[in-house]
Amino acid sequence: MAASPTPRPVAADLESAPPGLRAALDALRDAPGGTFSPPSAPLAVAFSGGADSTALLRAACLLHPGRVIALHVHHGLQAAADDFARHCERLCDAWQVPLRVLRVRAHHVAGDSPEDAARRARYAALAAAAREGGAACVWLGQHADDQVETVLLALSRGAGLPGLAAMPGTFVREGLRFERPLLTVPGPELRQWLEEGGIAWVEDPTNADEAFTRNRIRRQLLPALEVAFPQFRDTFARSARHAAQAQALLAQVADEDLRAAVVAPDAATDVGAPGLRIAALQALTRERQANLVRHWLRTVHGVGASAAQLDELLDQVSACRTRGHRIHLRVGPGHVRRVGEGLAYEPERQ
């Protein structure tokens, strides 16, 4: 942790920003209203108390003085959580930034990971608190090193284009816009800026646990990349943008195929969500079938299928040539099953 929190950030602090951060701040300052929010609306910043979100909160206060509110999500998953919240309270008091501490409890069902459940709970809490505070968007503190880690993590898991596209700069979740203003900024620059300003942050003790793949990537691979390929942040970011563009094109194709294959909810399922006509699926190549089924599961039901689950489902679709052919496969926290001439997805019963 750095020194104790400083008084509220002042305009002169912008002059001390390292080059990458300065460029990002200049771009934000030059944008209409500084962000996608209306110029008069509050700006919400997700504030964990770590170095990244502390730097982001400092930048937000400099760019939008008097408009910023801080949102701290308290999962209660580790003993230090209360200390993190108290640190955030002290810093926000010193900087005269309104702070809301959001206590969440994430519950996951079979087939769902605790990490995904915690992520959904976190975004839901942030979106609800931002709306209550009158904010039109929430800023998140992920930076260029986080983007590289995300790409490498996706590669380590054999992910497809959605994983390799990594984190978008802007996206909508829970009906609210989220933005990542620091995605082009190296993580070390953020810590340098805080250290030179004598600003404190907290270190999550789990970040040192190399049982987690992301931590091994951060602690072992990124230093090696820095030595072997000094421009790795830029090149990985460029690859992620290429993957995102390709994924956007696949999503457009899937939208067209979905319109042609969709079955009305009352004809396909008893859970009130659109299904897919099996005959329409069978008319597509296997690659387009896979693209469509992934898109349908993700956009209509908010779930993803593993590679093994998807292959098994497509094999069943290919074999489905008689009225009596039954399809009932586990996918995520639920099942895909045949209902009449279509496929339906049924979530796990609570």
Descriptive account of the structure:
The chain has 350 residues and is of the alpha/beta class. The chain folds into 2 domains: 11-231, Rossmann fold, CATH 3.40.50; 264-347, Uridine Diphospho-n-acetylenolpyruvylglucosamine Reductase, domain 3. It is built from 13 helices and 11 strands. The strands form 2 sheets. The chain has a 6-stranded mixed beta sheet with strand order 3-2-1-4-6-5, sandwiched between helices. The chain has a 5-stranded antiparallel beta sheet with strand order 7-8-11-10-9. Helix 3 links the parallel strand 2 and strand 3 (99-103). Helix 5 packs across helix 8 (213-228) and helix 9 packs across helix 12. The longest helix is centred in the last third of the chain and has 30 residues, at 232-261. It is elongated. The two termini are 43 Å apart. The mean pLDDT is 89.
CATH class of the largest domain: Alpha Beta
Question: CATH topology of the largest domain, what is it called?
Answer: Rossmann fold
- The biggest beta sheet, please? 6 strands, mixed
Tertiary shape = elongated
Number of strands: 11
The gyration radius over C-alpha positions equals 23 Å
Helix-strand pattern = HEHEHEHEHHEEHHHEHEHHHEEE
Low-confidence stretches: none
Which sequence of strands runs across the widest sheet?
3-2-1-4-6-5
Helix content: 40-55%
Cα distance spanning the termini: 43 Å
Helix-and-strand structural type: alpha/beta
Number of helices: 13
Mean pLDDT across the residues is 89
When the domains are counted, the total is 2
Instruction: Name the CATH superfamily classification of the largest domain.
Output: HUPs
Strand residue content: 5-15%
> Based on the structure given, which CATH architecture of the largest domain is correct?
3-Layer(aba) Sandwich
